[in-house]
Amino acid sequence: MVMATAISGYTSNSASAKKCRKKKDLKVKAKNGLAALTPGFAGADIANVCNEAALIAARGDKTQVTMDHFEAAIDRIIGGLEKKNKVISKLERRTIAYHESGHAVAGWFLEHSEPLLKVTIVPRGTAALGFAQYVPSENLLMTKEQLFNMTCMTLVGRAAEQER
Q1: Contacts 24+ apart (CB under 8 A), 66-71
Q2: Same domain, 74 and 7
Q3: Which DSSP helix (H) or strand (E) runs through 149?
Q4: 135 and 72 share a domain?
Q5: Is 111 part of the annotated catalytic residue set?
Q6: Would 126 be classed as within a structural domain?
Q7: Least confident among 18-32, 36-50, 136-150
Q8: Domain count across the chain
Q9: Is residue 11 part of a domain?
Q10: How many other CB atoms are there within 10 angstroms of residue 17's CB atom?
Q11: How far apart are CA 157 and CA 153, in angstroms?
């Protein structure tokens, strides 16, 4: 919570928090951009994003926290640490790209699927070589059509790999 106070304009005793000051237009961008990038996040999750964004900016010796820092923080919280040392061949990257694009294309054409938010082929976490992120539904119950579309979107990633 100490880092979040640096972003909202208050001073803090933390050295890295002192390095990070907000941009004047960050509030406007935050209302539109961050809300769309963090669907379903609770207050603690958003505070975690703010702290992580401040840390990313401080690691880069930046004096301001930008939207790029917030986007990197959201990716890190949702997907895990980026595996920069993971060596992936060109063929594997291509296969991962087909797999993730299969999820995205299926989600686009299926009527009862959740809207796509982001697709990446950056390896993160222990097993994920990429992921497709969707805007979660507010509904607690799913219809038969929604369940069928979710199943199709899940399976079409592997099918896209086979069809390339």
Answers
A1: 66/23, 66/26, 67/26, 67/29, 67/30, 67/33, 70/30, 70/33, 70/34, 70/37, 71/37
A2: yes
A3: helix 144-163
A4: no
A5: no
A6: yes
A7: 18-32
A8: 2
A9: yes
A10: 23
A11: 7
Instruction: In whole angstroms, give the CA distance from residue 96 to residue 98.
Output: 5
Type of residue numbered 69: H
Between CA 10 and CA 16 the distance in angstroms is: 13
CA distances to 25, 95, 129, 152 from 121, in Å: 30, 10, 6, 20
Q: Are residues 58 and 100 in the same domain?
A: no
Q: Which candidate in 52, 82, 92, 100 is catalytic? A: 100
Tell me the residue range of the domain where 125 lies.
90-163
* Distance, CA of 35 to CA of 40 (rounded, Å): 9
Contacts (Cβ under 8 Å, ≥6 apart) of 103: 119, 132, 153, 154, 156, 157, 160
In angstroms, the Cα distances linking 130 to 87, 106, 146 are 14, 16, 23
**Are the C-beta atoms of 117 and 39 separated by less than 8 Å?**
yes
Res. 111: pLDDT tops 60: yes
Q: Specify if 140 maps to a domain.
A: yes
pLDDT band with cut points at 50, 70 and 90 for residue 135: confident
